[in-house]
Amino acid sequence: MEEETEEKHVYLQVKSIPDFAELNDKVKGILHSCSWLDLFGYDWLQFTWALICLPLGLYILGHNGWQCQLFGAFLLTCYHTCLTARAAHLASHGSLAFSKRWNQFWLTLFGEFLGSFSAKCTHDIHIKYHHPYTNVIGLGDSSTWKAPFLSTYVYMFFAPLALPALAPIVSVKLLIEGSHWRHLFKFCVIFPISIAFHLALLVYVSGFTFFGAVLALYIYRAGLSIPYVHINIFQHIGLSMYSPDDRPPRIYQMASGCMNLWRNVLFDFNFGHSLISCHVEHHLFPKLSDNMCLKVKPVVRAFLTSHGLPYQERSYSSRLAQFLDQYEKLMVHAPPITHLVGIQ
User: Fold this and answer.
1) pLDDT, tens only, 270-322
2) Are 310 and 302 in contact (CB under 8 A)?
3) In contact, 86 and 270? CB cutoff 8 Å
4) Backbone angles phi, psi at 141, to 5 degrees
5) Between vectors from CA 116 to CA 238 and to CA 49, what angle results, nearest 5°?
6) How far apart are the two ends of the chain, measured CA to CA in Å?
7) How distant, in Å, are the alpha carbons of 4, 175, 248, 312, 341 from that of 78?
8) CA gyration radius, the chain
């Protein structure tokens, strides 16, 4: 493929694009041979460990010494992030159970109660727009993550720390703008109950004062907010972007508009394979659990590369260095629009 850039337009010469149905059949063959443990169980095992981090973290946080305070806060950060960023994300896709009602229950529990972000907003932003219109300008192009009025280092290392405070505010704003009054009432009931519940745990189990509990709650909720924002921009921004009127076939759109990050234990546990090392697979097959994304990854990679399609993987550190070096180009200026030519 040859690339030619002209006035913020990129033209790619592509001879042919394979039929997604062929890859879909291969993945279905793997799914049919898997047990419930493969489909959901391994993910739930890790969510169980995340739940165990809550009492352990609260207990250790109640001890004196900065080492105990730091380790306790780390455990609580893992509890919060794994369940709100990872489990809630999978629940929004229907990837935690066969039942649609159970998935909705888990989304409400993990996303709204624990994460303080409206389940309705999650569905509208992520399921209705981001996935169908991945990297389509004005629809699913990840522009909601951009804040061009902020400088490089403020955005990359300080602004993400505001996420715990912004999440409920953004939820209320979007629900009011959309006139989703039933969902607004639900959120306004669940959110304060969640905050009161977690503050009570910090006061009565860990021994904090009220204001100390508020500070501790905010700190552990913001513990992994910096890499969380990084991951969401690293996955898509700077890759091929498309016009709503000139989108390529879905398999090419997802292959060219998504990037996998290399695995590491901390990110795998807290964010999951679908957000880290299998993001391409996740966008092609969004209903798969984290474990199944990892299981089908060799098949997806082999299929895409054998047909000359992009399969993009980078390390977290290399993407971080790229964004620090090219912040204005990637996060401030409008991206070039990609067009495919020569498809037969």
Assistant:
1) 999 999 999 999 999 999 999 999 999 999 999 999 999 999 999 999 999 99
2) no
3) yes
4) -95, 15
5) 85
6) 14
7) 45, 29, 38, 28, 46
8) 21
Phi, psi of 343 (to 5 degrees): -70, 130
Q: What is the pLDDT of residue 344?
A: 52
d(CA 281, CA 301): 9
> Considering the entire predicted model, what is its pTM?
0.93
pLDDT, position 16:
81
Q: How many CA atoms lie within 13 A of 142 on its CB side?
A: 22
DSSP 256-294: HH--EE---HHHHHHH-TTTTTTHHHHHHSTTS-HHHHH
Query: 27 near 285, Cβ under 8 Å?
Result: yes
**Separation of alpha carbons 115 and 227, rounded Å:** 16
Alpha helices in 62-209 (DSSP H): 66-81, 88-92, 100-107, 119-122, 152-157, 163-177, 181-204
Token pair for 83: 């369940």
Whole-number pLDDT of residue 77: 98
